[in-house]
Write a structure and sequence with these properties.
binds nicotinamide-adenine-dinucleotide, single chain, 12 helices, alpha/beta
Length: 416
């Protein structure tokens, strides 16, 4: 297949800062021919930058029949409508994470894509970060015996982490329980326009087949109010050791494999063999992650190394001088996974069904919290109260029924 003719839908922050630097390295696969955003100023400026045609309406873009795929980088409120519209018009699409707002929306997105023979994927990035990549490779060696539990504190409860857990265990959970706790705080701002006077802590328990458990907890994940910074602590617990990662400086962590030898098991079972996880990069881009275990080197090679004349530096809010050298590659991996599926019919690492399960884990956790920790079975087919409330809130916020594709598709949706 020739290069895919692509439109970029949504010309905001993430498009400019994280997608755009990757385009040079992707130009064997994609040919960007248009950009689309109802914000005319932003759209025209970005179209100028790329030297392509601006569209202020998705309907007009689709009517012109110049694309066969789209990268959708818009507010979550509108992911559902855009996905359904693109599927109905036979346009493959990769949508930013999170997938959508309710389980029903996710189910329809998957169904519409299937019915129309369209590839629809979600650009989930967290399970593509180095620690999760190498952790799954280490699991495959069985070095730590059977791994039945993951405990995670203060990384990213929500859609991102849900996807990490199904990626690691390579299966879906069977139920979720969740308890929330809210407490008042000093007034504080997460962004200039977002003020908070309280803080919600959430504690989630995902039960996986064969008695495997993930415990995922966090309050405000931006590390405000002196809370633990990101990526928090992840402990992947096996029969004779653990894969651990802990916070070292904001947004970074160090990881290691902690192993109990036979003599340690007989005398206190304190891990006596520690194997550091090493991340390597060239020109600010992650190349590989490895750990030297006694019998072998376990490696994850980053096949999504991206070139850039400027050696793009992906930094985080508050850590402008620290380079997250893996960040661009994680997104690039989602994009090449998508183009591989479209162009070469390749299997995807994160399918529409996987994306839907992460959505079910999310709504299921919230529903459980609403019901004081009651277990919610997964996958779920019942209409959840939290999803009904979510739809009402979206309708109040945007003034349009979020399920009404035709009405909402060209609306300029504000940032949350
Ligand atoms: N994976 C991650 O870690 C991560 C991080 C940040 C953002 N995101 C996701 O990226 C997406 C975009 O976030 P952002 O920070 O760039 O937001 P943003 O507000 O900066 O940009 C969104 C853009 O979408 C445009 N838009 C609004 N309504 C539209 C419509 N009907 N059709 C086309 N365009 C429309 C807006 O005008 C704006 O230019 C969101 O889905 C968000 O969840 C993911």
């Amino acid at each position: 297949m020739d290069k895919i003719k692509v439109a970029i839908i949504g010309t905001g922050n993430r498009t400019r800062k994280v997608y755009t630097p990757l385009f040079k390295s992707l130009n064997n696969e994609i040919d960007i021919v248009a950009v689309c955003d109802p914000n005319k100023e932003s759209c025209s400026e970005y179209a100028n930058l790329l030297g392509v045609k601006p569209y202020y309406s998705i309907k007009e873009l689709v009517n012109d029949k110049i694309i066969n795929a789209a990268l959708v980088v818009c507010p979550i409120d509108i992911h559902y409508a855009i996905s359904v519209y693109l599927s109905e018009n036979k346009i493959h699409h990769l949508i930013e994470t999170s997938m959508c707002s309710t389980i029903e929306q996710g189910q329809i997105m998957v169904k519409k894509a299937e019915e129309n023979n369209v590839i629809m994927r979600i650009a989930e990035n967290f399970f593509r970060f180095p620690f999760d990549r190498i952790a799954r490779e280490i699991k495959k060696t069985n070095f730590l015996g059977e791994i039945k539990r993951i405990v995670c504190y203060h990384d990213h409860t929500g859609y991102h982490n849900n996807s990490r857990w199904t990626y690691f265990f390579e299966e879906y959970p069977t139920s979720v329980q969740c308890i929330d706790h809210t407490m008042p705080t000093m007034p504080h701002n997460s962004m200039a326009h977002r003020q908070h006077t309280s803080e919600k802590f959430t504690s989630r328990f995902f039960h996986f087949p064969n008695d495997k458990l993930v415990i995922d907890q966090a309050a405000n994940i931006k590390g405000m109010l002196g809370r633990t910074g990101r990526p928090g602590i992840t402990s992947i617990e096996g029969a004779r050791g653990a894969i651990s990662r802990w916070i070292t400086s904001n947004w970074f962590g160090d990881g290691e494999v902690r192993y109990c030898s036979n003599s340690s098991l007989e005398n206190g079972a304190i891990a006596d063999e520690i194997y550091p996880i090493i991340n390597e990069a060239e020109k600010n881009c992650w190349t590989q992650t490895y750990v030297d275990l006694p019998s072998e080197r376990v490696t994850f090679t980053n096949n999504n190394y991206h070139l850039s004349e400027e050696n793009i530096k992906y930094t985080s809010p508050g850590t402008k001088n620290i380079i997250r050298d893996y960040y661009g590659s994680a997104l690039m991996s989602a994009i090449t996974d998508f183009t591989g599926a479209v162009m070469r019919n390749e299997d995807s690492e994160f399918t529409g069904e996987d994306a839907l399960m992460s959505m079910m884990m999310e709504s299921g956790a919230k529903e459980s919290a609403l019901n004081h920790g009651e277990a919610i079975k997964l996958p779920t087919n019942i209409e959840l109260e939290v999803d009904k409330r979510q739809l009402n809130e979206l309708e109040k916020k945007n003034g349009i029924n979020p399920m009404d594709v035709e009405q909402i598709i060209d609306q300029s949706i504000a940032r949350p």
